[in-house]
Write a structure and sequence with these properties.
By secondary structure, the chain is α/β, with parallel strands linked by helices. 37% of the residues lie in helices and 20% in strands. It has two domains: 9-74; 84-292, Rossmann fold, CATH 3.40.50. The radius of gyration is 22 Å and the shape is elongated. Bound molecules: S-adenosylmethionine.
């Protein structure tokens, strides 16, 4: 394992050494990632890193920089090291307790925003909320909306609550711990939801061992979609029905190649109509929405 120099060092030397280390570790965007990690470790800005390259770095900062760079070299996701990820133009806290929000999930937010925006006082449920990114982005986009956000993971819900606070949405997003829609029971929401939205775990269990090393560091419970990757869709299609208002929508993010199966499952499940599929920026069928007939 290569090591950073033990001599007193400067911003410029750390930038050069960090780039070499990350690049040798196979990190594609080594130069940019080094700068972001050093900005964090040295509590400085990208501009200062450039302009003050002769500035001496304290022993403490150097050791923090070293720790972040080595963790990144070992495959820890950049976002966990930085502690944040942007989603829908907002900054979200992320920790290893939550899935890192993905850009393609913004499509799901756009879809639900359009549907729920037609209602006067829409009620929405976000199932498997993780960092809370979908729930909080929807609450911010739709001032009249109330969101019920569930997750099985108490640790994820802690992060989600902090994200709702961070964006001033704590009053309009209610976080509930439990299995899929089970925590909604007893809240008087039956037949009232304009939309149930979910980005559930959808990787087939047998594929988990072969996924990118960074993704393997994300919570297993956020990834494992059962033997065929479709286990959560079966349950969501069935369990959302008692809560959806007539004409309400179940909007689901799906994995590559799963849209057709999910549409077929919606048909077979009964009670749904007007299945729609939307593609993400890469042309992958990414969001399936189905209207509940009631
Ligand atoms: C793919 S992640 C999505 C997180 C977030 N909604 C997003 O889009 O970034 C799926 C989430 O579902 C949660 N989850 C898994 N099984 C669950 C269950 N049975 N009931 C509720 N939540 C569950 C996981 O803890 C994880 O936070």
């Amino acid at each position: 394992m290569p090591t950073l120099t033990q001599e007193p060092t400067t911003y410029g030397a750390l930038v050069r050494e960090g780039q070499v280390l990350l690049s040798n570790a196979g990190i594609a965007n080594a130069a940019q990632e080094t700068r972001w990690l050093l900005e964090r470790a040295l509590e400085t800005t990208g501009l200062r890193l450039r302009l003050e390259s002769d500035r001496t770095v304290s022993e403490e900062s150097r050791s923090l920089a070293w720790s972040l760079l080595t963790r990144r070299m070992s495959g820890e996701p950049l976002q966990y090291l930085l502690g944040t990820q942007e989603f829908c133009g907002l900054d979200f806290e992320v920790t290893p307790a939550v899935l890192i929000p993905r850009p393609e999930t913004e499509l799901l937010v756009g879809e639900v925003r359009e549907i729920a925006g037609r209602e006067a006082l829409p009620l929405i449920a976000d199932i498997g909320t993780g960092s809370g990114c979908i729930a909080v982005a929807l609450a911010l986009a739709l001032p009249e909306v109330r969101v019920y956000a569930t997750d099985l993971s108490a640790a994820a819900l802690d992060v989600a609550r902090r994200n709702a606070n961070r964006h001033g949405m704590a009053e309009r997003v209610r976080f509930l711990e439990g299995d899929l829609l089970a925590p909604l029971a007893g809240l008087g929401l039956e037949c009232r939801l304009a939309a149930v939205v979910s980005n559930p775990p959808y990787i087939p269990a047998g594929d988990l061992a072969g996924i990118q090393r960074e993704v393997r560091r994300e919570p297993q419970a956020a990834l494992d979609g059962g033997p065929d990757g479709l286990a959560f869709y079966r349950r969501l299609l069935r369990e959302a029905k008692p809560y959806l208002a007539p004409g309400g929508t179940l909007a689901l993010e799906v994995g590559q190649g799963q849209a057709e199966s999910v549409c077929r499952m919606a048909e077979e499940s009964g009670g749904y109509q007007l299945m729609q599929v939307r593609q993400d920026a890469a042309g992958i069928e990414r969001v399936v929405s189905a209207q509940f007939k009631g």
